Amino acid sequence: MRTITNEFMRERIAAGIRNTKRGNMSYRKVIVNTGNLPNAEGSAEAIIGDTKVIAGIKVDASTPMPDTPEEGNLTTSAELLPMASESYDVGPPTPESVEFARVVDRGIRHGNIIDMSRLFIEAEKVWGIYLDLYVINYDGNLFDAGTLAAMAALATTRMPRFEDGKVIRDASMKRMQTGNIVTSCTFAKVLDKMLLDPDSAEESIAKARVTIANDGNELHAMQKGMGGSFSPAEINELISATFESSKELRGIIKKSIGD
C-alpha cells in the first residue's frame, strides 16, 4: 500500500500537483505565537501546516568557554516527543534530534542574533542562553518551524540580573538585545521538482533536502540532507527562492514580537 501511495504521489508531483494544492515554492499556513511558557525567560511556538514546534529559553549564569572567556554561551537542544509522531520514542537523543538542533543553532549562531560579548558578567562568569526545542506535532519541515520558534523566543527573551553572586529574576527584567532576524527555508527534491516546505509525505519520497538560512541580506548557513544531490544551478535557484520567501517569514516573526 505504501509503495502504491508513494508512486501515486510521484505521479502527481511530476504533473505539478501537491497534496496541499499549493505551488512548488509556497508555504503552508504559517503561525508564530510568543509567551507560551510562562516560566521561561522567552518562548514561542511555530506552526507550519500541521507541524508544531515550541521553543523555550532559559538564561542562567555559567562558566565561559576556554577560547572565549569574555563571551556568553548558547546551547541548543531538541526533543522529538513521542506524541508528535509514531516514529519518535523516549530515550537518548537520536540522530534526527541532534541534526534538528544543530541546523537551527547554526543559522542563529552565524546570523549574529546575539552579541555574545554583551553576555559577559565578570571574570569566569557569563550568561548562558539555553534554547530548548520541543516537537509537539510532526508533519514535515521541522527545520523552518524550529528556526521560527527559536528566533521569536530569543527576540522576546527577558534578561535576569546578577547581583551579589546571585541571579535575580523579577518584574524589572528587560528584553535581551538581539540583532538580525534569521529565518530558514527548506526544500525537498522529488524527481526533478524542488518543493519548498515539504510535508511529511513529500519528505518520505524525497531524494535530497537542503535548508538555507538568511537574514534578508546575507546567507548564514546551509545544510544538505538525504543521499541525493543538487546541481550548482539548482542551488542558485533555491538561494534566490530563499531570499524571496524569507520576507514573509520575517514579517510573521516581527508581528509576533510586536515590532
What does this structure look like?
This protein has 259 residues and is of the alpha+beta class. It contains five helices and 14 strands. The protein has helices at 2-14, 95-109, 142-155, 200-205, 232-257; strands at residues 30-34, 42-48, 51-62, 73-80, 120-122, 125-137, 158-159, 161-163, 166-168, 174-175, 183-190, 193-196, 208-214, 219-225. Strands 1, 2, 3, 4, 5 and 6 form a six-stranded mixed sheet that branches. Helix 2 packs across helix 3. 39% of the residues are buried. The model has no long low-confidence stretch (mean pLDDT 92).
Number of strands: 14
- What's the structural domain tally? 1
Mean pLDDT: 92
Please outline the major beta sheet.
6 strands, mixed
The structural class is alpha+beta
What percentage of amino acids are in beta strands?
25-35%
CATH first level: Alpha Beta
Q: What percentage of residues falls in helices of 4 or more residues?
A: 25-40%
Element order: H for helix, E for strand: HEEEEHEEHEEEEEEHEEH
Shape: elongated
Question: CATH topology, which one?
Answer: Ribosomal Protein S5, domain 2
Cα-to-Cα separation, first versus last residue? 48 Å
